[in-house]
């Protein structure tokens, strides 16, 4: 009996028909609605372009100064500020300033959008077991469905450029912040919540005054991972038209310029470390109570 | 009686995965231990029926694990009962929707938690202001109020510390201040003073009672300290294994415990402090309203007592003894009794704790008159009565020494013989 | 007057060079506002067909997505402007030059089969490795068909999928650096073959173009016969809208083409200088005037020259 | 005296970020509040010097926040002092390396935490066995022992529950069982009974004392309950704002408080229970060792007392009154005093709590003789002495009524006049 | 002054020399040591090949039965077991059995290695601030340095195939479990730790009996993310010759067979969900105490 050794499969012909029908279906869908969907994203695109130009075209020292300012405001750590300054300067010194600014612009936007969407999603998940059991597999899909699979469909719909890149990055980068917000909120001490409830807090107060602050360490871990994922997608995004550090990386690989790849990779890492350190020290500063434990 | 502020009806709480399916065991009268062993479910409360009046301090006592915290948590619906109703101001709080429940919790009740339940990420002051914040009170006002309350509980200077930086008792006081800060009508206090030293504790008790006097708050108070319960409680409920075994006024419980359990429970209390004169005095058997000295003497003689309390329409007048009256009877037998013939004697008021009248009572061979604020003689307190009450024999009639030593398992030195020849 | 033009900037050197040359010439010579858009072959091709963006793909190996491009042309969305490599790409099965120096017989397929044991398989010691073409590329089909046609399996070879162009290039680099034997599919002109000289293995069959088109390049080729690869068409592809809206610029694109020799020289220079497309484009425009002036009218050439 | 088991020398603890830099303020004698306001650092302990003997129950008391928990945490080095030394069995535990410290904690000390410190992921039984597990005791043995201790603290049946499923008092008992289960020599108990009801609490006290009797453990006990402190403590230390204000035996502290603070602290105690006869009895002034009845009578007359305690070489013999002896003096004046002439009287033993002898003492007009186990007359206890001690006037000499009412701010009914005419 | 608008860069020539020197340096390194390094990994490679063959060549119903057995043992949930069975069957039914088994084999190994290395690293990090401040940037690099950058160098060193794929996957997938182990341990309640210390626990007991169990929710979140990352790398790994579901995905992208891509992507997702659900329910089962909170 063949099924003992061979998996009972859909016949090759059926599989082919199935594939073709679906492919064709999607193609005609994208032709009819692509335009509309594309227009929908126009304002975002305009903003992305504006923001990228701002960073790329502003004098480099203005940009560095601004970044250092933000760093200092957020982290209040001289050491960190100096470190950020030096690494940004090195990035420029090795001739990667423009690419770095392009990447910085898109990643900033992606990260902010991911956080802005992710935290509420995480909250929703924490609030109901139903939501959790629906959202979790979706997150699994978002994280493991290879970007390559949806890259082409997205390109068919939206063309090549920043918007599909942004979408791909967000799809991939958003799950950690959602998951860890959920986890963090679920781990909040029941006794504390009960006390808050006893004073009749509104759901909003409960969330903003109790759950989120106490879930902060986990949420920050989620944000950290989201930043990491977003930056990890830089190269893939550059495959569909997002300019920045991804391109030289791809070039280095096809042409086997190791050093070029490593330099550009290092610039990505520098961005990652800056993003991460700044956000983490900001969070830590707002959690003073944690250090005062006995 | 007006309708009660809080009414609990047929409340059951069974902890575990499937409380409903095991309720029949509870109803069938299985004990808590049996249910735990058979089903892994813990019986928290069993058929509680209770009424709490507006303005009273209602104390709940009972062994550790008897369901006190569980019961108090039902009052503001922090847990839902397995069965039964909780009615506050004629409203079944089980039927409140989320918003009304919130409102109810904000305005009606505030709670001190046994394990404090402070918010670790807020400073002490923010913690205290938390209830007000929930009510939507403005920042300035709530800070002012919080500061005030912090001072009242003796934590001025700690405003900006975090809970983890405080000692246990300090944390408890933060929880206390938080509850008091909200101005809620009903205070739920779960062992609110347990971590406090005696000085601060009695200060807090005073404050609480003053507050209650002033604002007529209703207070539900869990405590393990019988002295405390007797001191501040208007009524006391005693729980055992989730069942209500007795509810009553402090003296009631002390003097007429419903069963052995309650009796054991109250045995160790400092009666001298807990009981007032009222609760142990006898009716004034040596009361006379004779008009003349002779009348009085006749009275005393027939009663075979050497003294009497003289009372007229205006109330208690004074203490007279046969001995002294007899001396003047010959000359002035017909004259009316008046101040001149009264003797020095203490007069005690019915609300005074026994403790405070021990010396006087013991000093006098005759009973002391008990006179209320209106000046009426309401009873008399004899040395014997006092001794009897102070020596732990609530249910027996006569204050026998043997009784006392039987009662006290560890009694050592009450033998009539010298311990060693 | 030619307006905003987007040029696909693919990540291998020849494509990047052409993209930059086109950008310079269109901007300076035709007054366009040309912009480079990064992207891989597939997304770029798809986007051109479906969304009309970017406008120009300077180096499109049409075999790699033949169906889609042909359909795009059919539907009037794309145009093949002209060959960007006039000789066409050179495909074949290759062995490293140093091997052939040692064993001259390796230049033919029979020689390779004879030395089959030399080509060690990394995961299966009983077999030898024949490095095929990455999954999904058109060449995967042709390489497999030729592998069958040449009976390489019987000879003891296992067709190994390198996974990607990068994997393929990496495996060449690895073997070359260690002077190990390597046998597999590759194509030229490329930076890799520029850096690592290889010898194309002769199948001894000559080119049977008809059989190649009808069978070897088809998935369902039942009876493959050995044939050398015919030159592979490499196109400059533009969108229909660009072609119709900027006919002069389009005209330039139809002419812009390199021979393999020219391109190899340029690639070698780029390789040596690790130059990016832009830098190389300047180098080209400055030093190879005779080539590019052929592609444009004199006044355009003047404008470009002025801008340098 | 043998060398002490635990010796604390010059211990300082300043909480905050940079304790060292602010130590000079502490040394300069700034108060806790000043230091907090100036530097944000909290003074936990200040110059503590203390010795604890092997086998004693050492009680630490003090206001909430006075540093008790902080002090006890130094004993097993859960926190390192800012300055000072902790010496246990002649070993400075600050100098132990990690391994010896571990060993020391496993074997020498076990601790009950004020906030229980249970492991939430372990069942009750596993929690109790935790100390043994740390010691590497085998599973079977530790389970057996844990079960035994769980039963002893009254939690049989709850073995497989998790701490979150228990009530506060039950959790505390788990912590207690865990500490007792390890057989450590030294027990550190931080408010170990605070969440227990009076019944279970006194059971636990009894168990603790029995344990101590049997195994001579050294126990450091923090409590807020003075009755408890007086009951179980061999010595009591009182802390205020991180400073040690008094260390002494219970009766000492009760009767001779070092300052106002301590006096206030002990004022509310139930003296009747806390004090033993010994501590309040007077020397036996009415002691006679006359050989004959006449001698005895002579003695009594010269002392102007109507009674006497007759003592011979064999110790206390009996109570005699002038009245009765006088009756027989004429006939048998020369005869030696013997049983025939003794009168019924209570004899009390010096260790008995006052509480137990109140009725007898009050019943008799004359003082009662206090006789120790060897049969010797060691003192006498009069009604007045008793009353004086029971009415809160530890330092004043005479037990005046006025005194009592002054002392007690809330006294209501001790006026000599009727409250209303 | 040009530096006002232009970044003061390393001159092109210097940069070139630098790059060329480094590239050459790496090349000669790989020339001299590649062989040795490759040999070092031979046993692992042999194991990987053996394990893959085991899964691919065993009759499909044996494999499914084994997986269901593990699932049931770990999660004790009929629902989950049935779900896993159905999805595995569907994967086979759509003709992806072999690729799925290849992917399953390598991902299982990667995940296990990541967990086995990651948890100890996380513990180390939690134990000392020093270790944390050293390891954190390394993790940042591992997560954001694009795989493409080191793919070729690794291939040059080790050739294409499973070993470089495994290394790339682990580099990318290991950080979350390290980070969240660290976070989880750091969040353990100080009071509980103090109590344990007071009983003189050894560092090992402290770790295994207190810290790890209480950090479990976070560690499991880390493991979940590690699994997700590993599966997200399937496609990248297939770029350097790791067989499995990644190759059809790459094929689908180059040929625009969307359905093919989605089917194979879905198979990856199925693996992700199986891995994740099974590990999470195993963990949850061992954390009964969490549910019993009041
Ligand atoms: N970790 C800490 N950080 C800062 N201050 C602390 C810390 N722990 C204790 N303190 C301070 O030290 C003082 C003594 O605290 P401790 O816990 O020893 O008091 P306590 O005597 O045990 O009081 P209680 O009876 O209320 O438990 C308090 O004022 C407290 O605020
Ligand atoms: N969440 C819970 N899950 C299971 N059982 C519980 C839970 N909460 C309380 N119980 C059980 O209910 C019973 C009553 O607990 P409760 O906390 O009300 O006691 P208590 O009277 O407040 O005791 P204590 O004086 O010790 O605080 C206990 O036996 C306890 O084990
Ligand atoms: Mg309770
Ligand atoms: Mg304390």
From TrEMBL, chains A, E:
<feature type="transmembrane region" description="Helical">
    <location>
        <begin position="226"/>
        <end position="245"/>
    </location>
</feature>
<feature type="transmembrane region" description="Helical">
    <location>
        <begin position="58"/>
        <end position="75"/>
    </location>
</feature>
<comment type="similarity">
    <text>Belongs to the binding-protein-dependent transport system permease family.</text>
</comment>
<dbReference type="InterPro" id="IPR035906">
    <property type="entry name" value="MetI-like_sf"/>
</dbReference>
<dbReference type="Pfam" id="PF00528">
    <property type="entry name" value="BPD_transp_1"/>
</dbReference>
<dbReference type="GO" id="GO:0015226">
    <property type="term" value="F:carnitine transmembrane transporter activity"/>
</dbReference>
<dbReference type="GO" id="GO:0005275">
    <property type="term" value="F:amine transmembrane transporter activity"/>
</dbReference>
<keyword id="KW-1133">Transmembrane helix</keyword>
<dbReference type="GO" id="GO:0043190">
    <property type="term" value="C:ATP-binding cassette (ABC) transporter complex"/>
</dbReference>
<feature type="domain" description="ABC transmembrane type-1">
    <location>
        <begin position="100"/>
        <end position="279"/>
    </location>
</feature>
<feature type="transmembrane region" description="Helical">
    <location>
        <begin position="257"/>
        <end position="275"/>
    </location>
</feature>
<feature type="transmembrane region" description="Helical">
    <location>
        <begin position="147"/>
        <end position="174"/>
    </location>
</feature>
<feature type="transmembrane region" description="Helical">
    <location>
        <begin position="80"/>
        <end position="97"/>
    </location>
</feature>
<keyword id="KW-0813">Transport</keyword>
<dbReference type="GO" id="GO:0031460">
    <property type="term" value="P:glycine betaine transport"/>
</dbReference>
<keyword id="KW-0812">Transmembrane</keyword>
<keyword id="KW-1003">Cell membrane</keyword>
<feature type="transmembrane region" description="Helical">
    <location>
        <begin position="103"/>
        <end position="126"/>
    </location>
</feature>
<protein>
    <submittedName>
        <fullName>ABC transporter permease</fullName>
    </submittedName>
</protein>
<dbReference type="GO" id="GO:0015871">
    <property type="term" value="P:choline transport"/>
</dbReference>
<dbReference type="InterPro" id="IPR000515">
    <property type="entry name" value="MetI-like"/>
</dbReference>
<keyword id="KW-0472">Membrane</keyword>
From TrEMBL, chains B, D:
<dbReference type="Pfam" id="PF00571">
    <property type="entry name" value="CBS"/>
</dbReference>
<dbReference type="InterPro" id="IPR003593">
    <property type="entry name" value="AAA+_ATPase"/>
</dbReference>
<dbReference type="InterPro" id="IPR000644">
    <property type="entry name" value="CBS_dom"/>
</dbReference>
<dbReference type="InterPro" id="IPR005892">
    <property type="entry name" value="Gly-betaine_transp_ATP-bd"/>
</dbReference>
<keyword id="KW-0547">Nucleotide-binding</keyword>
<dbReference type="GO" id="GO:0005886">
    <property type="term" value="C:plasma membrane"/>
</dbReference>
<dbReference type="GO" id="GO:0015418">
    <property type="term" value="F:ABC-type quaternary ammonium compound transporting activity"/>
</dbReference>
<keyword id="KW-0129">CBS domain</keyword>
<keyword id="KW-0472">Membrane</keyword>
<protein>
    <recommendedName>
        <fullName>Quaternary amine transport ATP-binding protein</fullName>
        <ecNumber>7.6.2.9</ecNumber>
    </recommendedName>
</protein>
<comment type="similarity">
    <text>Belongs to the ABC transporter superfamily.</text>
</comment>
<dbReference type="InterPro" id="IPR027417">
    <property type="entry name" value="P-loop_NTPase"/>
</dbReference>
<dbReference type="GO" id="GO:0031460">
    <property type="term" value="P:glycine betaine transport"/>
</dbReference>
<keyword id="KW-0029">Amino-acid transport</keyword>
<feature type="domain" description="ABC transporter">
    <location>
        <begin position="23"/>
        <end position="266"/>
    </location>
</feature>
<dbReference type="GO" id="GO:0005524">
    <property type="term" value="F:ATP binding"/>
</dbReference>
<dbReference type="GO" id="GO:0006865">
    <property type="term" value="P:amino acid transport"/>
</dbReference>
<feature type="domain" description="CBS">
    <location>
        <begin position="341"/>
        <end position="398"/>
    </location>
</feature>
<feature type="region of interest" description="Disordered">
    <location>
        <begin position="389"/>
        <end position="421"/>
    </location>
</feature>
<dbReference type="InterPro" id="IPR051921">
    <property type="entry name" value="ABC_osmolyte_uptake_ATP-bind"/>
</dbReference>
<keyword id="KW-0813">Transport</keyword>
<dbReference type="GO" id="GO:0016887">
    <property type="term" value="F:ATP hydrolysis activity"/>
</dbReference>
